Amino acid sequence: MISTPGLPDPVVVTASHWPQPGDDAVAGPPQLPGFVGSSFSPLVAVVADRCFARTAPMERTALVLVSRTGDLASATHVREAVADSKRIGPLYFFQSVPNAVAGHVAARWGLRGPVVCVSPSIDAHRAGLDEAALLLADGEADQVLVVLVEQATTGDTAVALLVSGGEQL
């Protein structure tokens, strides 16, 4: 995990999460065209959309995608298909890296900042804020969308935090 001693924590401009009241946590987030068989990418997209519906992104907005486990559903599908000598669909290759959905969100919202994906072994929230602080301090972005996403048997969760370097937008 990257540490940012001496750098202030970014200021949260707006936040969103999955699930929230009214969401069907059992059915999962709305499907995302071009992504199949997993809630991982739709989770990222829905919390990003919710943040940007509240506050339009600046042009130099970076995206930091943070997940300790990654896309478990896709990884399980591919592992089982290989074990059973079955064909793996091409969309699974496309979505097998988190950069695919991060790029989708960046293109959809016209983000022109860096896209970074991290998989910390411990505190994902801290790792995301640390990465955002570095991007802001280095002048790589004016704001950063930090998306934390996890799939679990107890329920999928995602949080998006749109952060800035200190000025409330």
Automatic annotation (TrEMBL):
Q: Which InterPro entries match?
A: Ketoacyl_synth_N, Thiolase-like
Q: Which residues form the signal peptide?
A: none
Domain Beta-ketoacyl synthase-like N-terminal intervals:
40-152
MF terms per GO, please? acyltransferase activity
Q: What is this protein called?
A: Beta-ketoacyl synthase-like N-terminal domain-containing protein
Instruction: Give the source's domain of life in one word.
Output: Bacteria
Q: Which Pfam families match?
A: Ketoacyl-synt_2 (PF13723)
